[in-house]
TrEMBL record, chains A, B, C:
It comes from Flemingia macrophylla. InterPro entries: Allene_oxi_cyc_Dirigent (IPR044859), Dirigent (IPR004265). Keywords: Apoplast, Secreted, Signal. This is Dirigent protein. GO terms for cellular component: apoplast. Transmembrane segments: none annotated. The keyword Signal applies. Belongs to the plant dirigent protein family. Dirigent proteins impart stereoselectivity on the phenoxy radical-coupling reaction, yielding optically active lignans from two molecules of coniferyl alcohol in the biosynthesis of lignans, flavonolignans, and alkaloids and thus plays a central role in plant secondary metabolism. GO terms for biological process: phenylpropanoid biosynthetic process.
Amino acid sequence: MEQPTKLVFFFLLVITCSSCGADASPKQHYKRVREPCKRLVFYFHDIIYNGENAKNATSAIVGTPAWGNRTILAGQNHFGDVVVFDDPITLDNNLHSPPVGRAQGFYIYDKKEVFTAWLGFSFAFNSTQHKGSINFAGADPLMNKTRDISVIGGTGDFFMTRGVATLSTDAFEGEVYFRLRVDVKLFECW
Amino acid sequence: MEQPTKLVFFFLLVITCSSCGADASPKQHYKRVREPCKRLVFYFHDIIYNGENAKNATSAIVGTPAWGNRTILAGQNHFGDVVVFDDPITLDNNLHSPPVGRAQGFYIYDKKEVFTAWLGFSFAFNSTQHKGSINFAGADPLMNKTRDISVIGGTGDFFMTRGVATLSTDAFEGEVYFRLRVDVKLFECW
Amino acid sequence: MEQPTKLVFFFLLVITCSSCGADASPKQHYKRVREPCKRLVFYFHDIIYNGENAKNATSAIVGTPAWGNRTILAGQNHFGDVVVFDDPITLDNNLHSPPVGRAQGFYIYDKKEVFTAWLGFSFAFNSTQHKGSINFAGADPLMNKTRDISVIGGTGDFFMTRGVATLSTDAFEGEVYFRLRVDVKLFECW
């Protein structure tokens, strides 16, 4: 009976040490598995104020370069326009679907030669399904079919989360309406 | 003497393995304990420039929607107003207490129907007590008694930190002065 | 033969437990080693639009306080000026070196008494060397020789990264051109 018992100890030790080695390396330079702990897909809908749509608008130009104005996006690929938004979030691509939250924050067009923006915003949820917020930041080279920004934190149901969100422009109409699809992939869940 | 020794080994193994199992799972999808590694409470004081208080003002409106101006917060719950600030941080709720640092950054009012803001700012410390910075971002639905934003990073004494900060409006006077209480709960400390 | 074997077990257990204790403590309050998993040095070059340099300008003032205008940085240490930029990134300090990416985002001068800014921006790479983005946020007290901001996330080659970036002003010419050296130290690499 004695040798088998020792063998069990030995195996337990090997298992224990190999997992510790992977994670408790003093330098923390191990490779982590890139599989999301949570994944969510949403759409949000942005209607920019153009001087005539005050009632429906969900966003407004609040900063412009010297050559711009606040009722129409500026020339040179809108370079320098700062837009503040409070956009409905829906589960499908229909603007009129019941919103499940609000996308709130700002984007800045930041390149003269091509459409490119920088985004800082949150998804704010307060429904039976989700409570709390997901915070995002990053560059959005919006002529690319898909582009990745960072999930930099979260609160409530998304406490301390981090990840990557893949954006794609699902639709746009002139320079007043656009719809973004956001594929939220969370890699740190608490 | 032999069986007790083995028993000790066994217990050690169980302890060892259970903690490794919790943390070193190859997918990193374990539940982490939500107890702060550091907790700090501060107040900061914002005095918005209104055209007449240049000397005392600690913040200024620097962007507005087309219908706004930069010496008074805009109608529609200030939607679209961008405010830059450099506010004193104090340990208690007295504006005239010796500041222990500065809260620096911006907020954007981002909703037409109700007061709501988006914040990007830092606490900058350079005292005997604290050196370094804590960086914050997130949505601030400021009609709620308390609301959580993300601590997205830090430097110096707060190197690489992450966490959640609970904001509450401690006081306000008209549309010129407000005081925020910030309960900083750090869950990643290096 | 029996006692030595047990001794080996004992040592293995001690090693195992000490590393687990360091990393897998249920409270996650261990000290991590502060050695970067990746380190990169870049320069970026900012040429502010001043009404006459439309062709060369890489940035523009898009928000100002009531007393400012958008073709020259405002008085009082530019307090309240919001600048949007799309700046070339180079590997050395030569503006005319081939750019390896773009620094895109914004900065806000946020203090009346001294030059201090708040930055939100990304390094966007799309070359054979680097693909993806690094996202930054933080306070930049730019009269200090060096100052640290946070790396709050990344995508592509810099997937999920976090760290600290040390900024230094490498050169400036009047109020139109400046060059920042950015020493990017990543402490979380996936």
